[in-house]
């Protein structure tokens, strides 16, 4: 039975008055599980205006109390962890293990938001000039907004609004129209934790609603995660309206395999990092670069990948779930066909994947290519599916040249037993997040998520100290007090309560 997805405005769920609705489907069987409203202009205006009112009061709340809200929130999220994961699985198709990881990585960012006070400390210099002191104060921006993708409906919203709100802002969240249910549940729990009404608002919609947020004069900062074309559009449009923007885009992440690496570890990690979450993550390894004789392991890699199967979220034997939509599946299948047509050797083709009992799901099996060159579509494009392409070079220098000539710079890794090779790679590679014998080097929340080049548009990254800087502004004060103004004893009155 389907239901209408509510908006979350002023501390509670409310039904939209929109006349335009989209269907939300379960990607494992493509059955409709909910209907989503395209928020009306009046609803969006109400959400932003109430967020503005709430922020003017919220910014005056002591930073220690804002931190305590995050402590209460992370406790509620932990208590509801499994239930959120199950809800997330129904709308994304993720296996329950993947869904739990999605929720937990978001909780880790909320825990970091509880440390907000130390990250908002200013600086002071006494006597910058004679009897004059200088100091800086860190203050919130106002109303901020987040536009989040389908692939991490818990983690990525939790990258954004907890830190923004802990820093004294209010926040308007526009989750992906494909996975709105988790976002509403996150908002309900935030209110239950004691958040003031209006500090967090959730609206729904597509491009028209996004354009409204990008143009609204009261929204001061925009956070986005999604595809490259959309990230470019968000960044260009948001900055044209004089907003601070961070836009996380696509990726083509390479894992470099040296001949001295641990063969078993390489194969296990390549399988998991390429097809895990159906390859629908911006940090997935989609290119394996075999250096020298390590290319002898490719047949063993193909054998290991052939034993991995997708399935329903509650299937303990499933390694990953379906793609998010029939459109996404067709795009992946088209790229697989293009790879074959362009001359790559397809060692494993998952195009005809079937899952028992779920014939209408968006299934694609593990797919492996060899003999891939730089000019092929399967190398140039982010496939965003369970597809791994293998490339072969003779030296580490060639591997570095390959990775650095790619337009993206989100994540990369090197597997080797050589400290010298690892150091050379981490020093010279032009990628923001580097793993050494770690396949998916997503930083923990006390660092920041630091994609480079075509994978990111903006200056300050998500979570960690950079996020606090993104959601705040610095005010510098120069103060002088005159000794003649110090009151004498008879004129000094102290009021005690």
TrEMBL record:
Q: Name one GO molecular function term.
A: methylmalonate-semialdehyde dehydrogenase (acylating, NAD) activity
Q: Please name the GO terms of the biological process aspect recorded for this protein, alphabetically.
A: L-valine catabolic process; thymine catabolic process
According to the entry, every stretch annotated as the Aldehyde dehydrogenase domain falls at: 16-477
Q: Give the EC number(s) listed in the UniProt record.
A: 1.2.1.27
Task: Give the main EC class.
Answer: oxidoreductase
User: Which ranges form a coiled coil?
Assistant: none
Q: Which InterPro entries match?
A: Ald_DH/histidinol_DH (IPR016161), Ald_DH_C (IPR016163), Ald_DH_CS_CYS (IPR016160), Ald_DH_N (IPR016162), Aldehyde_DH_dom (IPR015590), MeMal-semiAld_DH (IPR010061)
* Keywords, sorted A to Z: NAD, Oxidoreductase
Highest taxon in the source lineage: Bacteria
Similarity remark: Belongs to the aldehyde dehydrogenase family.
Protein name per Swiss-Prot or TrEMBL: methylmalonate-semialdehyde dehydrogenase (CoA acylating)
Traced from the root, the source organism's taxonomic lineage reads: Bacteria, Pseudomonadati, Pseudomonadota, Gammaproteobacteria, Vibrionales
């Amino acid at each position: 039975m389907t239901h209408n997805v509510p908006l979350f405005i002023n501390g509670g769920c409310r039904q939209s008055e929109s006349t335009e609705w989209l269907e939300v489907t379960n990607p494992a069987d493509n059955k409709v599980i909910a209907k989503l409203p395209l928020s009306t202009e009046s609803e969006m205006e109400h959400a932003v205006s109430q967020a503005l009112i709430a922020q003017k009061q919220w910014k005056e709340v002591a930073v220690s109390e804002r931190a305590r809200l995050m402590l209460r929130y992370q406790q509620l999220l932990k208590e509801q962890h499994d239930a959120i994961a199950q809800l997330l699985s129904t709308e994304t198709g993720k296996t329950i293990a993947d869904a739990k990881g999605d929720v937990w990585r978001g909780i880790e960012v909320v825990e970091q938001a509880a440390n907000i006070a130390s990250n908002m400390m200013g600086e002071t210099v006494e006597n910058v000039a004679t009897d004059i002191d200088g100091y800086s104060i860190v203050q919130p921006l106002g109303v901020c907004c987040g536009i989040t993708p389908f692939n991490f409906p818990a983690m990525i919203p939790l990258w954004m609004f907890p830190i923004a709100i802990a820093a004294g802002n209010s926040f308007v969240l526009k989750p992906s129209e494909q996975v709105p249910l988790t976002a509403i549940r996150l908002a309900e729990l935030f209110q239950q934790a004691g958040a003031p009404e209006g500090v967090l608002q959730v609206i729904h919609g597509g491009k028209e609603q996004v354009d409204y947020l990008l143009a609204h004069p009261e929204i001061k900062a925009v956070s986005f995660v999604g595809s490259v074309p959309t990230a470019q559009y968000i960044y260009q449009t948001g900055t044209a309206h004089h907003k601070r923007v961070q836009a996380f885009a696509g990726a083509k992440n390479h894992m470099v395999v040296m001949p001295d690496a641990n063969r078993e570890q390489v194969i296990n990690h390549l399988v998991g990092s390429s097809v895990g979450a159906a390859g629908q993550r911006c940090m997935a390894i989609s290119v394996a670069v075999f250096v020298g004789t390590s290319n002898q392991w490719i047949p063993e890699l193909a054998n290991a990948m052939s034993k991995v199967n997708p399935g329903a979220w509650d299937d303990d034997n499933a390694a990953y779930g379906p793609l998010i939509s029939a459109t996404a599946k067709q795009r992946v299948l088209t790229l697989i066909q293009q790879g074959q047509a362009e001359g790559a050797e397809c060692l494993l083709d998952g195009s005809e994947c079937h899952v028992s009992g779920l014939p209408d799901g968006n299934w694609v099996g593990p797919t492996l290519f060899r003999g891939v060159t730089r000019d092929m579509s399967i190398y140039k494009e982010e496939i965003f599916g369970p597809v791994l392409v293998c490339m072969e070079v003779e030296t580490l220098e060639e591997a570095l040249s390959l990775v650095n000539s790619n337009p993206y710079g989100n994540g990369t890794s090197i597997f080797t037993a050589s400290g010298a090779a690892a150091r050379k790679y981490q020093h010279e590679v032009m990628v923001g997040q580097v793993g050494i014998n770690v396949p998916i080097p997503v930083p923990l929340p006390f660092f920041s998520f630091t994609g480079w080049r075509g994978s990111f548009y903006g200056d300050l990254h998500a979570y960690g100290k950079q996020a606090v800087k993104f959601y705040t502004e610095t005010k510098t004060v120069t103060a002088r007090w005159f000794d003649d103004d110090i009151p004498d004893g008879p004129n000094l009155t102290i009021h005690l309560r």
